[in-house]
Amino acid sequence: MPAGIFKCWPQQIEDYKMATKSLKARHNELAESNKQLDILNGGIFAEGELPFFKDKIAAIGQFPLRPKKLEILQINVGYMCNQVCEHCHVDAGPDRKEIMTRETMGQCLDVIRNTGAHTLDLTGGAPEMNPDFRWFVEEAAKAGIKDFIVRSNLTIIRANKKYYDLPEFFKKHNVHVISSMPHYTRGKTDKQRGDGVFDKSIKALQELNAVGYGLPNSSLRLDLVYNPSGAYLPGDQIAMEKDFKKALKEDFDIVFHSLFAITNLPIARFLDYLIASENYEDYMYALVEAYNPAAVENVMCTNTISISWDGWLYDCDFNQMLGLKVASKVKNIKDYNEEILTDRDIIISQHCYGCTAGAGSSCQGTVT
Amino acid sequence: MANSYYDPADLRKFGKITEWSEELGTKFFDYYGKVFEEGALSAREKSLIALAVSHVVKCPYCIDAYTKDGLQKGITKEEMMEAVHAGAAIESGATLVHGVQMMNKYNKLSM
C-alpha cells in the first residue's frame, strides 16, 4: 500500500468532520481512480494474505467473467448532487460539474429505442439536477421500455420548490422510483440526525405515498435502498425489509414495496473512510470471508451496461468510478453495438468482492 | 508472538482452532452456527443476548463481534446499551444477592 495514503490519516479524519465537499474538490489523492486501484491491488492482496478476486472466480470456472444477455441499461446523467454522503462511491456533491449533455442523451435515446434490454436505470449524482433531466425522462418514457427506474435520493424532492412536483412528474411517466434510505429509527430521538436529511426523506416518502407510490398493489413502484452507514456488511435483506416496513409504518405511516440491501464497495469516499477509520483490512477480510460463489453467477455486470455522463461505457457503475472502460472495441455510446459489446471480458478487481458477499449485492439488491 | 494478550486481528483467525482439532472444532462451529439461527427466538434477539453475555464474560473479541453483528442486523445503539445494562444488572445482582449469605452468617455468629 502506498505510504502516502497513511501519512494523511489525521487530515482525512479532520476532513470527515466537515465532509461537505467531494474528494475531488478536497484534492484528495483518492479522487484519482488509479490510486484507488493501487490500494485494491496492493497491501493484503499483494502480500498474499487474502486471495485475488480473479483466483477466487477462476476456481469455479468463471474467469474471465463474461456477460450474459443484456437486461439493464444504467445511465449516469451526472455527478452533481445536493448531498455529500460519506459512503458515496460516485464522490458526488454540489461541487461536481460533470453533467450529461442533451447531445449525449440523444445518443442514449437512440440506444434505448433499439436495445434488447428491458430495464432503463437513471442514476447520478441526483439525476434530477441535470437541467435536461425532465426532457430526457419524457423522451425515454416514449420508447416503451418495460421498467423505467429513476434513483432518487428523496431529499432532492424537498431541496427546492422547483423539485416539489417530482412525485407527480414521476407518476405521469410511470417511473419506478428507487430511493436511498440509509437508516430508520423507531424511537423519536434520532429523527433529527443527518442535518435534516432524515426528516426531508420522510416528508418526500409521504409525498410519494400521497400520489400513489408504494401502496400495496399499486403499479407505481417505490423501492428503498439500504446500505450500511459504516464498516459492516448489510444484514439479511428480508429481515431488514420487515424492520423497515414496521418502523416506517408505525412511526410515519409510510409504505413501500421492496427493500434492497446493498453492500458498500471499497471505492471512492467509502474507501477513503475505511482507510481513515482504520477499518480497511477488517472490511476486506469480511468481504472475502463472506464470498459466495453462487452470487458470482448473477453478479450485475453480467446483465448491465453502465453509461457515464460523457458517454463512455463500463461494466458497472463502480468500474465507471474507477475509470475502467469496457474491454471492447465499442467503448462509447456513439459507437454502440450490443452484439459486439456483449462479446467481452468483464474487468474485475478486489472491489468486486463487494458484489459477491453473502447473498450478493447489486443495484437491485441481493442476487441469490 | 504478540506482546499483548488480546490482538483484535486474532478474532478473524478464530476459525483456525479447527486446524489443531478437526473434530472438536467442527462440532463447535456447527453447534455455534445452529444456536444463532432463527428459531423460537429471532436472530436479532439472540444477537442482543450474545452482546449482553459478551460483556458479562468480558470477552473483547465477543464485544467486537456482536457490536458489528448488531449493526448488521439494524439494532440501534439504544437497544445495545439496554442489553449491556441487562447483563450488568444480573452481574451486580449476583454479587449483591450474596449479601443475604453475609447477613445469615452474621446473624448466626452473633448473640
Automatic annotation (TrEMBL), chain B:
<dbReference type="InterPro" id="IPR029032">
    <property type="entry name" value="AhpD-like"/>
</dbReference>
<dbReference type="InterPro" id="IPR026445">
    <property type="entry name" value="AlkhydPrxdase/COmuclacdeCOase"/>
</dbReference>
<dbReference type="InterPro" id="IPR003779">
    <property type="entry name" value="CMD-like"/>
</dbReference>
<dbReference type="GO" id="GO:0051920">
    <property type="term" value="F:peroxiredoxin activity"/>
</dbReference>
<protein>
    <submittedName>
        <fullName>4-carboxymuconolactone decarboxylase</fullName>
    </submittedName>
</protein>
<dbReference type="Pfam" id="PF02627">
    <property type="entry name" value="CMD"/>
</dbReference>
<dbReference type="InterPro" id="IPR004675">
    <property type="entry name" value="AhpD_core"/>
</dbReference>
<feature type="domain" description="Carboxymuconolactone decarboxylase-like">
    <location>
        <begin position="23"/>
        <end position="101"/>
    </location>
</feature>
